[in-house]
Amino acid sequence: MRFERRALLGATGAGLACLLASGCKDKASAAAVFPLQLSETEWRKRLSPAQYDVLRRAATEPPFSSPLDHEQRRGTYVCAGCALPLYASDTKFDSGTGWPSFFRPLPDAVVEKKDSSLLMERTEIVCRRCGGHLGHVFDDGPKPTGLRYCMNGLALRFIPT
Asked: Which of 8, 96, 104, 146 has a CA 20 to 30 Å removed from the CA of 68?
């Protein structure tokens, strides 16, 4: 079989683009079953296009674009896809990264998944109920946990108390 240089370069570029794309997921994680199951059509009706890209395709919103990054009232941050309570406002802190950050989720709220996109290993955080992509967790947060749950504001909705 003979490969043409242009075809080989195109295939290599497409593969690299897939690896770097935030929406590229392995089949095992895509097959996970969550309690709330909706069709793609139902998700698109429920979410804005930007929320759909983040929650259902694992996109990342631009840093410093979410009003929730500056939210300081007391309340609860819930999943924008299914309204499951995820984070209490007293666990939120200013990480300086441009995304809402928390040092601890509420009990039984999120699920951790291995994320190998962007040619590195990270821990993705998804909603336990609907499987929506929320963001990632890193080990450079404040006490008491030392964790930074770096969340997309588009994946969250704030309910003040």
From this structure: 146
